[in-house]
Amino acid sequence: MNNLNQNMDITVIGAGYVGLISAVCLCEFGFKVWLSDNNRYKIEQLKNGAYPDSEPGIDQSLKKHIAAGNLILSSDFTDLVKQSSAIVIAVVTGASKEDSNLSNLHEVVKDVALSLSKDRYTGIVIKTNLPVGACSIVSHNAKFLRPDLIPGKHYDIISNPGFLREGVAVHDFMEPSRVLIGLETDSPKAKELVFQIYEPLARAAVPFIFSSFETVELIRAATIGFVATKMAFINEIADFCDRCNADINMVIKGIALDQRIGSKALRVSPGFGGSSFPRTVRILSNTAKSLGMDLSIIDSALKSNSNRISSIKTKIMRLVTEDNTSDEKALKRIAILGLSFKPSTSDVWESASALVIEDLLKENNVEVATYDPLYKPGSVSIKRLPDFVKNHRNFSLVESAYEAVNQSDIAVIMTNWSEFTSLDFKKIKELMNKKSDSKPIILDYRNMFLKSEMSGMFRYISQGQ
Asked: 93, 128, 242, 417: least CB-packed within 10 angstroms?
């Protein structure tokens, strides 16, 4: 991008996932950006070019813009509010799986509102993903705190929820399918500011949707809820294929060719997860209940996903104990390939793999050896695992897929990392447990291989093939 926007300063408050992605991408748009977070340790890490999570494209851009002076890091935003045309709030709203804790957001809005100047217009852009109705509360609080300021003249609250998928977040910010803008009133100044911030997207003919706070909040939540329903649906159809001897790959192909449906999210998986996706769906459901109604389809998708994850442990244990020649009390070694909820990210929050491992370790005669490209032994990422898992005597993180499968009774593919497609499966066959005359078992919850390719060497169990 060019530097045509260097005369407009932007402050991003919150250096978490959404805030950092937003700050770096706004620098790519040509802005000078101040990124603020009250966590001084995090700011110092970022100043050294260290991004704690795994997100393709961020490390290089972060270092580039810090070195160029386009991205300035600070632990105090009070003075920055007075000099910035736009304040982008992207603070974390709590780690609860069921609800949002908005206290941090309200505290930041309070500090921003009290720092606003009467001498200039400031757009307060809310990038934090909020439950439906939350932005109206933010706007009400701002008016209460600064009755001397006139919305539309001195400032505007602007809701701007995003769709940043982990692993492709930079792409999603730079090339979104649409830009959602929620406003309380039809403010010309707010619209002018929005188009100035997102001018590269406007020039690229990306659709802009302007509506009320509640409408854009619901667009985001409903989109994720719909995708969750598609994911839960196709996993149930994969199980149905197992029962009736149908081929899920052909079923997906046939469904996806229908223009009313499309192919996105029609992929077999162990279940949806991540730090944002399932939480957004649950918050949507809980918000509906607070309004006196049930979203039965959304609730069914959540239940279906939960049932699928819990059934994986049952299936693994059945497969490793069904050999009548083995000692039922003997230690069963289970190799888990993949920890993160999807490839290209280190996020294990509500990862099906992490949840299944936790369930397996509750069995008395099970040990779990796990390999994931981003979770090598000694990695700082290990702290993200549940304490029960990472401290368990029968759990180990290993250096390679080959080390994980060595002497294992079963290998379970949970994350579709591309490197798994280049593994030497002849070597894997030799490494796996030989206690019985049957073929080694591979249980593939990502359908990374065709059954015809694997059945010569393994008892290969995929989903619906």
From this structure: 242
Distance CA 31, CA 28 (A): 7
Question: What single letter denotes the amino acid at residue 127?
Answer: K
Segment 50-61 mean pLDDT: 81
Between CA 239 and CA 352, with CA 332 as vertex, the angle to 5 degrees is 40
| Mean pLDDT on 212-229 | 97
Going along 266-365, which residue ranges are E strands?
Answer: 332-337
**Start-to-end Cα distance in the chain:** 46
Cα-based angle 252, 254, 257 (whole degrees, multiple of 5): 105
| Cα dihedral 302, 305, 309, 314 sign | positive
Please check whether residue 6 is in contact with residue 29, taking contact to mean a CB–CB distance below 8 angstroms: no
Domains of the chain: 9-211 (3.40.50.720), 212-465 (3.40.50.720)
Q: Which class for 244: exposed (0-12), middle (13-18), buried (19 or more C-beta within 10 A)? A: exposed
Q: Which tokens go with 360?
A: 């397996």
